[in-house]
UniProtKB/TrEMBL annotation:
SUPFAM superfamilies noted in UniProt: PLP-binding barrel
InterPro entries: D-amino_acid_metab_enzyme, D-ser_dehydrat-like_dom, D-ser_dehydrat-like_sf, PLP-binding_barrel
D-serine dehydratase-like domain location: 303-400
Entry superkingdom: Bacteria
Protein name according to UniProt: Amino acid deaminase
Amino acid sequence: MPQHAPPSHQRTVQPRDKSFPAELVGRPITALDAPLSSFSTPLLVLDESVIAHNLRVMARWTTQRGLELMPHGKTTMAPALWARQLTAGCTGITVATGWQADLALREGIRTVQLANTCTDPALLRRLAAHLAEHPEQELVCWADSLATIDLLERELPAGSSLGVLVELGAAGARTGAREQATAREIGERIAASAVLHLVGAAGYEGAIAHDRSPASLAAVAAYCERLAALAESLRPLIAGPPWVSAGGSAYFDLVTDALAPLRGMRRILRSGAYIVHDSGFYRGISPLDATRGLSDQEALLPGMRAHARVVSMPEPGLALLDAGKRDVPYDEGLPVPLGVATALGGPERPLEGEITALNDQHAFLRHPGTAELALGDVVTLGLSHPCTAFDKWRLIPIVDPATGTVHEAVETFF
């Protein structure tokens, strides 16, 4: 069943919030009602209508296939967006670190999946203490070795009952037990523990490949079949419906196909980037992008963009923008110019050009000539990789594209 959204915080705009106008200082971030034109650049913005659309698309896609979705909250680290995902039917939130798990639990998330292992003794005891005080909440972590189980049993207090998923890996990939037999042995050890209980199996297929070439798709599909086999082998050791969890934002279609035969299990995807999608990496690899021949109602749409102002035109064909590595993501592709306006929030005209490099605070925009740009113009940039876009901003405005009004902003916790 969908979970209740976490409680909202009475966060107000502060003078230190990057690119927010002075007139909003002190105002609750849930009641801004300010024109986009009042903000400064550089600026990261989210599209209200696209977020709502993407939530509907993913909810429909998973429901039709009998899947659960516990989206990766580390993508945004924004509890206000987690709340929207839970309201849309998600059954929990996934995180990547023990600290993130602690935050999610304290935000009131009922089911938190830690897609990793916490080996910090003090943090483990802190998590255990919280769960003892809040039995209505659940934390499930991963383990990929017998040494991990030794550590958890040594550090968790008596009376704990931490849920654990056995993590399956692959040679040359990231974490996870490399061999099926090892993974099975880990599961048996968890099932016999006094402070742990076995929940099922999990893995991350996104570490296997980085594109949708035939070879990559075959490698991912083979890994997913191994994960399904592990989950089935662990079933007799588990009380209650077993979990099997996989699915980043790139290959969740292959995960779904592999897990389809596992009846009576909670088949849980963890895709997180879908809420804003992107204009780069995920647009090229997601099974739900419009480039896959889907209709507008079936496809995910880019829901984040940046605005940057022209601050210098030092030579023909080159413009420097006031957004750099500290403002926009660049690890999975540089920003893409989408258009240009004479003022932030104003009508845009087409822009032919390419971002060729980023410095800390500047973007290099190469373009055919000088006539289509002027100092002070505002360039809209499509972005790649949400995970490294949100972490550069403490507070991100959400824009109503129909009116150009910012009604609220979301706070991030990185």
